[in-house]
Amino acid sequence: MSTQSMSFNLRVWRQDGPQAPGRLVDYKVVDISPEMSFLEMLDELNVQLIRRGERPVEFDSDCREGICGMCGLVITGVAHGPLPATTTCTLRMRHFQDGQTIEVEPFRAAAFPIVRDLVVDRSALDRIIQAGGFVSQNAGSAPDGNAVPVPKDDAENAMDAAACIGCGACVAACPNASAFLFTSAKVSQLAYLPQGRPEARRRVAGMVRQMDLEGFGNCTNHGECEAVCPKEVSIQHIARMRKEYWKAILG
Amino acid sequence: MNQTYLNAPPEESARILDARIPPGPLERKWTDHRGHVPLVSPANKRKHTILVVGTGLAGGAAAASLGELGYRVLNFCIQDSPRRAHSVAAQGGINASKNYQNDGDSDFRLFYDTVKGGDFRAREANVYRLAELSGAIIDQCVAQGVPFAREYGGTLANRSFGGAQVSRTFYARGQTGQQLLLGAYGSLMRQVAAGTVTMLARREMLDLVVVDGRARGIVVRNLVTGELETYAGDAVLLATGGYSTVFYLSTNAVNCNNSAAWRCHKRGAFFANPCFTQIHPTCIPQEAETQSKLTLMSESLRNDGRVWVPAKPEDRRSPAEIPDPERDYYLERIYPAFGNLVPRDIASRAAKRMCDEGKGVGSTGRAVYLDFQAALERLGRPVIAERYGNLFHMYEEITAEDPYRVPMRIYPAPHYTMGGLWVDYNLMTTIPGLFALGEANFSDHGANRLGASALMQGLADGYFVIPYTLGAYLAEWRPQAISTDHEAFGQAVTEVRQGIQRLMEVGGKEPVRDLWRRLGHVCWERVGMSREASGLAKALEEIRNLRKVFWQDLCIPGGQQELNRSLEMAIRVADYLEFAELLAMDALHREESCGGHFREEYRTPEGEALRDDERFSYVAAWEYTGDLQRPRLHKEHLTFEHVQPGQRSYK
Ligand SMILES: Cc1cc2nc3c(=O)[nH]c(=O)nc-3n(C[C@H](O)[C@H](O)[C@H](O)COP(=O)(O)OP(=O)(O)OC[C@H]3O[C@@H](n4cnc5c(N)ncnc54)[C@H](O)[C@@H]3O)c2cc1C
Ligand code: FES
């Protein structure tokens, strides 16, 4: 591991509250090691700010290993930054150039109001799930786990879709702020599995309806969502959701 | 050894703690208990408000199941969505005694392995129930649409996991926790839509409200507005996870904390076995001071990876330059029966021993190799990629080294806490109406948890235990409704507000993160993987000093009535600075080595943990007396009728 120290010119979105005006503020961070994650770099910035008596930058994070979906920043124009298949928390500073200027902004979408600085409200995604993203299965009434065989390929495909961490990068990257990739991942996961079939129609109809109600845009096949998805969820799921949707609507 | 206490040995209560274990033979206890407890009628269930704190596997499963039964549930979590609870990070898998592999598994064997794995410090009746319920968990999750790994024939796949000789672990690639949690989350969202569960995210519980000796409500801070809110109910379920972040660096998420449990402790809930902490053997070693967390490399890697160090101390050659005869595959050498699959406590201590002997590798010398060369030659890259691809990718992302070519470097890190709030068989704490579920309680893993058993416990507690035992509590008591106008709520809010005020007013210069890091350092060095009386006494002193420093030097910029992460963190660290003292005191009082609690003074000639069943075959449940330095010790004596405590041998 190198012991080299880096510095960066940051332009960070600061906003005191949902209604307050926001702006980009310039900061210089020094003494950053290439092994640090992007969020550790921001931690360092915050330590420097606190020591100077300034208000630290607020951002969301939890697991810091790319699985909880809590973090998410637009880094110089790209949701989760320049590296494919990476979350903001697992992105290392060695992928940036010493002295580089980096813009740091929140995930923006009409359906994701800003809470403070880089923190946004993504509860709309929970409401999409509430509209049908589950199997109606009460605890206690399940048959034996091996009662219904599931072809290995179906299980694998379902798992590919289920890998979604619900971070909302797909929405932030989409020119229409569409939540198609997020929604289709759940629809597709449950469509692949026999356990999901009984409610398939109701599910897709309900979830798509909620997506519209929340103010997410339509999908016009830009593919930006797939490009930034940290779990490489494929837009093939969108195609599958469309199919499921028409089946549901046309009966 | 008494002179090592700063004051005097802990005061011991004469009262015997009653775990309320049902009578009858082990394998009938739960069934009979379930069949005889009083029930709440369906019409009455909706009249009961239940406060569930936490949305991990334990809290999420409990809230969903209680909603399905018709209770009115309020569910709280710190994150912006319940789907982000730290259960999401579990990688390896979940155990169940299905015996699908026909390799000799059974409820009894899972029970036996767990009691032995816990170094005979767990309660037999609870562990048996856990094993008994394990199969139903898998059924439930499959029915929810959890995409478990499958065989070509379409049946569920299994793998073996550390410390077990049968293949009983179910998994969904390296994301088992995520998939199980999303299953529970789906059920929870269904209940939210149905109107039985109200979800209150970005809320942090800061106090418990006790009325007439029973848990009747909570005080939470709205993390967006800073407002203090109160909620009243007929029972409070705490499913707030573990306290590994007392060590600052751990495999846990950065918001994991012990505050809810600690504040319940201060309201009368006993805290059990705080010194039983698990240090996981396979984590990516720490590289820098500024690191904010440590990353686990799933234990499943030990199925195919071989652990080794250079046979000669201070050998600085690169791994490729060290020929096989000059390597020490020490786990295979010392523990031929289990080899690389020995339980976590054993593997972690062995790694530490190797590094202490100067055989550690990497830039810091605090790491050992986990090598896949042999497995790659035997199975080929595609098989290894299918099994561990995502872990290898994660490792490379962090270290910039390719584990297909260079052996991984790993080192133990704080990971899981077996200790927690004391609960009886019904998961109720010493405060009636306050229940603790999942990692937040102490119950099932004794002094060491086996791999793939925490997910099992969280879900057993949430889906299958609490729906019965909570009902029994309510049916027996028949509570009158209570509102937050009751003076006890006002009082609790005032106390919380004053606490926050005090933190805001310290007016020092230190960011809370730095103070937390210092506490973590003390805990890791003196109350970590190995402990020793004088070091523990020193830890107590250092923790007390650090507490003083904290209350002089802390700096929290910004205000209270807004989103303020520095304040959130300061609240948690202030509680940790108190809790850490109990952790060290418990470690000091337990003059034996067992499971994850290793005291240098108590070891076999080969250096293994030496238990003292004569004196310490009990659960140490600590009561808060108002004086942090004088907690009162209550003992729950453990009796073993079905597994005879012996020295755990994995040789
Ligand atoms: C990296 C990692 C890998 C693991 N792998 C495995 C594995 O393969 N197999 C296995 O069996 N176990 C594994 N474990 C252990 C297992 O994941 C955990 O023990 C278990 O998931 C804990 O579940 P829980 O529901 O008790 O708590 P958590 O999932 O931690 O949930 C805690 C909840 O409480 C909330 N909360 C906490 N405090 C408050 C408060 N004051 N107010 C409001 N809400 C609060 C949080 O927001 C969260 O919703 C792993 C653990 C880690 C860290
Ligand atoms: S913090 Fe969990 S995914 Fe980044």
Write up this protein.
The complex is a heterodimer of chains A (251) and B (651). With 251 residues, chain A is of the alpha+beta class. Chain A folds into two domains: 6-105, Beta-grasp domain (Ubiquitin-like (UB roll)), CATH 3.10.20.30; 122-135 and 150-250, Orthogonal Bundle (Fumarate Reductase Iron-sulfur Protein, Chain B, domain 2). In chain A, 34% of the residues lie in helices and 14% in strands. Chain A has helices spanning 38-51, 123-130, 152-162, 169-173, 180-192, 200-213, 224-228, 236-250, and strands at 6-15, 22-32, 74-75, 78-79, 101-105, 114-116, 119-120. In chain A, the strands form two sheets. In chain A, strands 2-1-5-3-4 form a five-stranded mixed beta sheet. A two-stranded antiparallel sheet of chain A has the order 6-7. In chain A, strand 1 and strand 2 form a beta hairpin. In chain A, helix 2 packs antiparallel against helix 6 (200-213), helix 3 (152-162) packs antiparallel against helix 5 and helix 6 packs across helix 8 (236-250). The longest helix of chain A has 15 residues, at 236-250. In chain B, helix 14 packs parallel to helix 16 (565-589). Among the domains of chain B are: 280-415, Flavocytochrome C3, Chain A, domain 1 (Alpha-Beta Complex), CATH 3.90.700; 488-622, Up-down Bundle (Methane Monooxygenase Hydroxylase, Chain G, domain 1). Chain B contains 17 helices and 20 strands. The radius of gyration of chain B is 24 Å and the shape is globular. Chain B is 36% helix and 14% strand. The mean pLDDT of chain B is 95. By secondary structure, chain B is α/β, with parallel strands linked by helices. At the A-B interface, helix 1, helix 2, helix 3 and helix 5 of A face helix 3, helix 5, helix 6, helix 11 and helix 12 of B. The structure holds flavin-adenine dinucleotide and FE2/S2 (inorganic) cluster. The site of flavin-adenine dinucleotide has 45 residues of chain B, from helix 3, helix 6, strand 7, helix 7 and strand 16.
